[in-house]
Design a protein that fits this description.
24% strand, 8 strands, 254 residues, OB fold (Dihydrolipoamide Acetyltransferase, E2P), 5-stranded mixed β-barrel, alpha+beta, binds zinc ion, de novo design (two linked rop proteins), 3-stranded antiparallel beta sheet
Length: 254
């Protein structure tokens, strides 16, 4: 069993027995791992309350098959800006749960690590905006190889350039031309263009969806994610409740 230090983001943590914490974390070098931190509930000195969702830290871990042993933690940031705002807490929790549920265990994925870290950085300094969440989702699907087809009809393979009214089906695997898309979810070319832009710019906040495109992109992405999940995300329920209280998409607590 070798002990190593790795830069990680906590995806989820629960109490385990009398004194321990069971932690799922995303390590830059080793991918998603699950570990147990012995005595973490009691030892504030060794862990200092660091093992909380979406904290970014250096973990000292003993790697072995199955559960790894977490020996200690040095916090890089707990993203204090996120923790002042319910909307941002909900969104950061959602991003971590989504990564946890879609990313298989083991195997490094530095691109996805950078995407999640950049999203948390963004949320730490900016109010929650639905556009940023959708930006995160399309890039996440792209990195994991789950992105819906946007350039060609997922039914017949025809190019979509110049077509204004399109359809979408998650089960068909993407955007559909008018012939193939009869009865499917309607999508405009403008929304597809914005989704493309999310993939070509690496910067959160660079793409702002107008309300109608945001609604379309939201439905399309929700459906594209849902087909890869065996059960709904817990954090999505919280996020939807917040959204109902602040239907404009921007959630700020006072
Ligand atoms: Zn077609």
């Amino acid at each position: 069993m070798r002990t190593t230090e790795c830069e990680s983001i906590i995806l989820g943590a629960t109490d385990y027995g009398e004194a321990d914490r069971l932690v799922t974390f995303f390590c830059h070098e080793h991918g998603k791992l699950r570990g147990v931190a012995r005595g973490a509930k009691r030892s504030r000195q060794r862990f200092g309350g660091a093992l909380e969702p979406f904290a970014r830290l250096h973990l000292q871990v003993s790697l072995k098959e199955g559960l790894v042993r977490i020996q200690g933690a040095d916090i890089l940031t707990v993203f204090p800006g996120i923790r002042t705002d319910l909307g941002r807490i909900g969104c950061a929790g959602y991003a971590c749960e989504l990564v946890d549920r879609l990313l298989p265990e083991g195997g490094a994925n530095p691109r996805l690590f950078r995407l999640l870290a950049a999203f948390l950085e963004f949320l730490d300094h900016s109010p929650y905006a639905e556009s940023a969440r959708r930006f995160f989702e399309i890039n996440l699907l792209n990195i994991l190889g789950y992105r819906p087809a946007l350039e060609h009809c997922a039914g017949c393979g025809a190019g979509l350039a110049g077509l204004e009214r399109l359809g979408f089906s998650a089960t068909a695997g993407g955007i559909l031309c008018r012939n193939c898309g009869t009865g499917s979810m309607p999508v405009t070319a403008a929304t597809v263009t914005l989704l493309h832009r999310c993939l070509s710019t690496g910067r959160f906040g660079a793409v702002d969806f107008p309300p109608s495109a945001l609604a379309e992109a939201g439905k399309l992405l929700d459906a594209s994610i849902a087909i890869h999940l065996s059960r709904p995300l817990n954090s999505l329920v919280f996020l939807c409740e917040l959204k109902e209280q602040a239907p404009g998409g921007s959630i700020q607590n006072d």
